[in-house]
Amino acid sequence: MRDAVVLLSGGLDSYTAAAIAKTEGFALNALTIFYGQRHAREVEAARAVAKALGVARHQELTVDLRGIGGSALTSDIAVPKTGVVAADIPVTYVPARNTIFLSLALGWAEVLGAFDIFIGVNALDYSGYPDCRPEFIHAFESLANLATRAGVEGARFRVHTPLISMSKADIVKAGVELDLDYGLTHSCYDPPTDGRPCGRCDSCVLRARGFAQAGVADPLLR
Questions:
Q1: Chain Cα centroid distance, residue 47
Q2: For the chain, which domains are there?
Q3: Distance in angstroms (rounded) separating the CA atoms of residues 145 and 149
Q4: 106-146 pLDDT, tens per residue?
Q5: DSSP secondary-structure letter at 40?
């Protein structure tokens, strides 16, 4: 089995992307990053998901982005509860987050001798983040092969984005076919103290729409 590094947040998308990597025959090395996000409950979800997937390794790193701020997820800016506005980049965008995450995944992959990285970005049903687009992924893949010793010596890194052109409903359906337990996941950006989803933030709205269009009940709402 070839090793792959999978970015695992504990959300629905990263769980599904990691499960797809497993079905493709990769040994999973899961990387979860605590970046000072207000919805840190997702780190606990990532541990549960990693256990369910039977990952080979689960690395947790802390890179506190609260000092940089600029996002409702890492500062005192309120999380919007007015629905998804596709034309705008919302304040829940975390500056350079996926660049930072992929860079960390790349570093670990090079140490492991792995040349495949999986990330659960989606450019169809999403909040409009610029670092979820195919153009960004292609640019980062080129950078990975220029900026590493392994790349200079002839290895080729590949950033896999199995969900990038799927609707949220299609992602849910794919997970159901893989028998994934979405009750282990966490998606809400601004959960109340009991940890249940708020039901109104962008992430909750997109998740609810995906389950509804897939004709599947969300186990978190039962």
A1: 14
A2: 2-221 (3.40.50.620)
A3: 9
A4: 999 999 999 999 999 998 877 789 999 999 999 999 999 99
A5: T
